[in-house]
Amino acid sequence: MSDLESLMKHADNRKIADRLTDQFPHPYTRESGRGFLKMAMAKDPPNVFAIDVEGEAVGCIGIFPQEDIHRLNAEMGYWLSESYWGRGIMTAAIRRMVDYGFSTFDITRIYARPFGTNLASQRVLEKAGFTCEARFEKVLIKNGELLDEIVYGIRRATHNL
Length: 161
Known about the structure:
By secondary structure, this protein is of the alpha+beta class. The chain has a single domain (4-158), classed as Aminopeptidase (3-Layer(aba) Sandwich), CATH 3.40.630.30. It has helices at residues 4-11, 14-17, 30-40, 89-104, 119-127; strands at 48-53, 56-65, 73-80, 109-112, 131-142, 145-155. It has a six-stranded mixed β-sheet with strand order 1-2-3-4-6-5, with helices on both faces. β3 (73-80), α4 (89-104) and β4 form a beta-alpha-beta unit. α1 crosses α3 (30-40). It is globular and about 40 Å long. The termini are far apart. Residues 3-157 form the N-acetyltransferase domain. GO terms for molecular function: acyltransferase activity, transferring groups other than amino-acyl groups. This is Protein N-acetyltransferase, RimJ/RimL family. Keywords: Transferase. InterPro entries: Acyl_CoA_acyltransferase (IPR016181), GNAT_dom (IPR000182).
């Protein structure tokens, strides 16, 4: 809960919310932050982490193991404060989360699903070793606009732990 103030400061940004699912609220309120932190701290082993720069939570990254027939897969989601874009922070965070995911969970694949319009996120995933697996045209709706969904993945067999 000590990250609540910095979380609210950095998460309350329309540019970030526009690049994430509708579950990420805008405006980002104190109540939103408390609910998110409560959820993030509930898992054991932990699967959601703050991205910390000089003692301040400036973003978040999480890995979400799937269930049933998808149980060997985990989805990864992330965001970073606009103030820190373009500095290599997210690429480093993704690489660390991939290492953590493969060493902590019984999974063989980690995937992420950026919007087709989010070229920066696609580049970050590629820099972190992910490959584009699929593109689904006009299957998402965000702010009244139909968007492509891109699926990127990395597999344990091709990842060096």
